[in-house]
């Protein structure tokens, strides 16, 4: 079930809110949380009910391990065992295919067909429980009842694609919840949810019609011209931001509707002045997780410069692999690790670039790294990169060359670009205007739900009609990009 589907917005969500409020009023807070847990299990099992025992078993198993850890003098043994079980489960479902295919390729054998079904959200609910085990071993999270813990892990607002919320911040909110839906929380939550829904339906899904054809052509082995490659990349850079930040806003809004506060996950990342600043603004909860549960335990920057650089590379390579079982994701993570190493080395010289130059270089580096993240293979990645530097030639629509004849000397005219043909209903002007609008918003404004009341109100009024129209009349709901992770 998708947040951006009519079934969720007009069916599941109102029924859940009514049931939660009614249970809290009649039977108290525990009953309301019981409704929340039941609704979350229904939400998760809607796609494949057969996966429900996996989620339930993971929740119960980790809760029992954490309890045993508290009672035992050998906390480290329980912690290592619990972490190993979680990582083995994640490794089997997510990475067994990649390892088997890579091993077969090295031996010159055909890749085996393992036919492993990847459970939705396994990366996210595994990380949630890894945090709980580690924080329990550190003594940083209070003991809680099973219902509070199960709601923390399974809450449908963040179960599939985050944000990755800290147990010490969220579990106490469930423990002290009074089972009531306050009018001000509901109103604020609906507002943030609708703004996120607008990001997804109005901007992200429209931008996908310009990003997908270019990357699909590269996946099929077709060369991309300079314009096609840059249009695909700029469209995707905007699409993934509005898609994932829209999802995060919707998750924050859903939690706020019942009085649960989720942390901010995006803070105008494309306005970052350097790559470290980018990771303080992009997918903030994942950045904190990688820092606190991987980079610092590896030694952080406490063991010298060379070890710090190695820790950065390991952290980002594993962060890339967490996103997907493909070498292209590791390349994306490796690029960001290299960027961070270069950034730290540059800071040693104490030289500061002008802010606009620094922002431009950071943005260019981030965009180039999106190529392997989005490309379906390393060969497709190479085709897109060749197009970006003009190795695939230059094409322009007839309308543009007719308006600016001088461009005919450097570009070959075509009736319509392949990516424009796939967009169908949009003209050259409309498509260019959409991409320009998206980048104007990202480079010139704060994330929308951090605006003041008047700014959010105007944005809500302006976007509500478009969002409602897209939601009601769209032939199908397009999945969120991060659902595949």
TrEMBL record:
Biological process according to GO: alginic acid biosynthetic process
Keyword field: Acyltransferase, Alginate biosynthesis, Cell membrane, Membrane, Transferase, Transmembrane, Transmembrane helix
InterPro entries for this protein: Ac/AlaTfrase_AlgI/DltB, AlgI, MB_O-acyltransferase, MBOAT_fam
Family named by the database record: Belongs to the membrane-bound acyltransferase family.
Protein name: Probable alginate O-acetylase AlgI
Source species of the chain: Acidiphilium cryptum (strain JF-5)
Main location group: membrane
Pathway this chain belongs to: Glycan biosynthesis; alginate biosynthesis
Membrane-related topology note: Multi-pass membrane protein
TM annotation in the entry: 41-65, 77-97, 109-134, 310-333, 353-371, 383-407, 427-445, 457-477
Pfam families, per the entry: MBOAT
Compartments it resides in: Cell membrane
GO function terms (MF aspect): acyltransferase activity
Superkingdom classification of source: Bacteria
Family annotation (PANTHER family): ACYLTRANSFERASE (PTHR13285), TEICHOIC ACID D-ALANYLTRANSFERASE (PTHR13285:SF23)
GO cellular component, one term: plasma membrane
Coiled coil regions in record: none
């Amino acid at each position: 079930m998708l947040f951006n589907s009519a079934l969720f917005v007009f069916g599941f969500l109102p029924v859940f809110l009514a049931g939660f409020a009614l249970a809290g009023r009649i039977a108290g807070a525990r009953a309301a949380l019981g409704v929340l847990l039941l609704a979350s299990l229904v939400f998760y099992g809607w796609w494949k009910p057969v996966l429900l025992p996996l989620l339930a078993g993971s929740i119960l198993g980790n809760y029992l391990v954490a309890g045993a850890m508290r009672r035992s003098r050998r906390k480290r043994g329980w912690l290592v065992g619990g972490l190993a079980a979680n990582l083995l489960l994640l490794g089997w479902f997510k990475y067994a295919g990649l390892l088997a295919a890579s091993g077969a390729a090295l031996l010159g054998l055909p890749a085996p067909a393992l036919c492993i079904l990847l459970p939705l959200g396994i990366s996210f609910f595994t990380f949630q429980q890894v945090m709980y085990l580690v924080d329990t071993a550190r003594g940083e999270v209070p003991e809680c009842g099973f219902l509070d813990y199960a709601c923390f892990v399974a809450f449908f607002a963040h179960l599939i694609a985050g944000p990755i919320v800290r147990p010490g911040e969220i579990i106490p909110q469930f423990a002290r919840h009074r089972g009531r839906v306050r009018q001000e929380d509901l109103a604020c939550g609906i507002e943030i949810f609708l703004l996120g829904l607008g990001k997804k339906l109005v901007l992200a899904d429209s931008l996908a019609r310009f990003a997908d054809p270019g990357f699909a052509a590269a996946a099929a082995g077709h060369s991309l011209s300079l314009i096609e490659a840059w249009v695909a990349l700029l469209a995707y850079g905007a699409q993934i931001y509005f898609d994932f930040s829209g999802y995060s806003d919707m998750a924050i809004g859903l939690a706020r509707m019942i009085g649960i506060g989720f942390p901010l996950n995006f803070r105008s990342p494309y306005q970052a002045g350097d790559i470290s600043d980018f990771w303080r603004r992009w997918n903030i909860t994942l950045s904190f997780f990688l820092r606190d549960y991987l980079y610092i335990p590896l030694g952080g920057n406490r063991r010298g410069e060379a070890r710090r650089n190695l820790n950065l590379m390991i952290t980002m390579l594993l962060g890339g692999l967490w996103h997907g079982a493909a070498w292209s994701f590791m390349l994306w993570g490796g690029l960001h690790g290299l960027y961070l190493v270069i950034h730290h080395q540059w800071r040693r010289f104490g030289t500061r670039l002008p802010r606009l130059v620094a922002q431009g270089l950071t943005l260019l580096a981030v965009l180039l790294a999106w190529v392997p993240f989005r490309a379906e293979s390393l060969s497709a990645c190479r085709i897109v990169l060749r197009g970006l530097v003009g190795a695939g030639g230059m094409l322009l629509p007839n309308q543009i060359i007719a308006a600016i004849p001088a461009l005919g000397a450097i570009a070959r005219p075509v009736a319509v670009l392949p990516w424009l043909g796939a967009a169908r209903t949009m003209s050259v002007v409309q498509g260019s205007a959409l991409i320009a609008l998206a980048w104007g918003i990202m480079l010139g404004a704060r994330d929308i739900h951090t605006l003041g009341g008047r700014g959010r109100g105007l944005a809500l009024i302006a976007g509500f009609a478009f969002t409602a129209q897209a939601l009601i009349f769209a032939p199908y709901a397009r999945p969120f990009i991060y659902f595949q992770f």
